[in-house]
Amino acid sequence: MVLQQTINGLITGSTYALFALGFTLVFGVLRILNLAHGAVFMAGAFVGLYAVTWAGLPLPLAFGVAVLVGGLIGVVVDWVAFRPLRRQNAAEFIAIVSSLGVAQMLMSVAQGVSNTLILRYPFGTFPVVFFEVFGLRISLLQITIVALVALLVTSLLAFLYATPFGRQIRAVAVSARTASLLGVRPDVVYAQTFFLSGALAAATGVIIGIAFNSVHFLMGEPFLLKAFVVVVLGGLGSVSGAVVAALLLGLVQSLTVAYLSSALSDAIIYSLLFAALLVRPGGLFGTSSAEMRVVRQ
């Protein structure tokens, strides 16, 4: 049923949006591609899993711990991979390579801790409940994912556009030098940005870990590729563009798997990306107003 697949696609797209927002947030403020974002996502999934299985925490509390730890890991990634290079005015390409190195370190640690095994949540960690609504089959987990993603995305947008901290982030995104002349400390803003990015990645990691009941040290790489597609298609640095592009991506993926073939899913997604960029090289929201963007002009 088309409507059922549409709902499934929007749910998948909402998780892509949550993951990609952290990715595009860092790009919008610092103009760098943080390729360690997928590894932070993976680390958050591991923290959430071990908080449940080792520490015996209830899932909501484990989720909060994972988000907090993910945010701190994001700050550490900035300190290790980007901050020293910023002080030396190093080329952006070097920062990309540096983030790749940090990603490999995080994955190596997770590989060692997990002994390269696919880890799973204990049965019953999240109640398996399904609802029949107008002939559609929707699980409690899907409803929870959509509600949680909507809450987190709304909170992020409110933080960016309705708080003094958000104004500082947007000011630094436009010009760090000008913002510093106005009393804004760019280093503090960078730390806040990486904390938010890491927290969003970790939240997505726990959600995906629960949804598929699978946590693995390589789980971040496919999501990083999807996030790259979302960020480019939505418009580099565009928050609203990332959300729209992520929902479209999830929708196309779900319909392709349902009515064509799962093997064609990636080919169709990247073909659409190629075609879209030929028409709009800046992405769907590449010419959006500065008010709704976290990007240098």
UniProtKB/TrEMBL annotation:
<keyword id="KW-0472">Membrane</keyword>
<feature type="transmembrane region" description="Helical">
    <location>
        <begin position="189"/>
        <end position="212"/>
    </location>
</feature>
<feature type="transmembrane region" description="Helical">
    <location>
        <begin position="143"/>
        <end position="162"/>
    </location>
</feature>
<dbReference type="InterPro" id="IPR001851">
    <property type="entry name" value="ABC_transp_permease"/>
</dbReference>
<keyword id="KW-0029">Amino-acid transport</keyword>
<keyword id="KW-0812">Transmembrane</keyword>
<comment type="similarity">
    <text>Belongs to the binding-protein-dependent transport system permease family. LivHM subfamily.</text>
</comment>
<keyword id="KW-1003">Cell membrane</keyword>
<protein>
    <submittedName>
        <fullName>High-affinity branched-chain amino acid transport system permease protein LivH</fullName>
    </submittedName>
</protein>
<feature type="transmembrane region" description="Helical">
    <location>
        <begin position="257"/>
        <end position="279"/>
    </location>
</feature>
<feature type="transmembrane region" description="Helical">
    <location>
        <begin position="224"/>
        <end position="251"/>
    </location>
</feature>
<dbReference type="Pfam" id="PF02653">
    <property type="entry name" value="BPD_transp_2"/>
</dbReference>
<feature type="transmembrane region" description="Helical">
    <location>
        <begin position="6"/>
        <end position="28"/>
    </location>
</feature>
<keyword id="KW-1133">Transmembrane helix</keyword>
<keyword id="KW-0813">Transport</keyword>
<dbReference type="GO" id="GO:0005886">
    <property type="term" value="C:plasma membrane"/>
</dbReference>
<dbReference type="InterPro" id="IPR052157">
    <property type="entry name" value="BCAA_transport_permease"/>
</dbReference>
<dbReference type="GO" id="GO:0022857">
    <property type="term" value="F:transmembrane transporter activity"/>
</dbReference>
<feature type="transmembrane region" description="Helical">
    <location>
        <begin position="93"/>
        <end position="112"/>
    </location>
</feature>
<feature type="transmembrane region" description="Helical">
    <location>
        <begin position="61"/>
        <end position="81"/>
    </location>
</feature>
<feature type="transmembrane region" description="Helical">
    <location>
        <begin position="35"/>
        <end position="55"/>
    </location>
</feature>
<dbReference type="GO" id="GO:0006865">
    <property type="term" value="P:amino acid transport"/>
</dbReference>
